[in-house]
């Protein structure tokens, strides 16, 4: 069973371990010092930033992190992407990692993405779509998006997380299903 909760500061040691794992470090390219993790994840954990950092559990064991946010809360990023692809004003995006290396390559990524996307329609009733840019060479990531039902809608020229990579990203999208649209207010 996949569940999640907001990341807490008490989870930072685990997150540091995950960010140091080679399969994560390759794509996230994040400083794993205690100070850097506290600086970059602390504001969301304390509710000072609009993004959601979600600690994902499989049968109550932590296995992954999902970051979810509205593009509208990050106007510079929204403008950069909207200049290159059609981006609804109310679109949400996610980023994700499977931290536990034992779980990589076993179909967990698509299950997590599918579950988080389905819950996004309830958690963000005005979200028209989930749109996810992913580096073009990160095949495992974009295949997980495809398996979770997102479709590639184009490419975008964006700063990569890893400075060794070029700027080419594939952009994936899934629209709110008709049956997930909230009823109009009376």
UniProtKB/TrEMBL annotation:
Transmembrane segments: none annotated. Signal peptide: none annotated. Keywords: Transferase. The keyword NAD does not apply. InterPro entries: Acyl_CoA_acyltransferase. Pfam families: Acetyltransf_8. One of its GO terms (molecular function) is N-acyltransferase activity. Gene3D superfamilies: 3.40.630.30. This is GNAT family N-acetyltransferase.
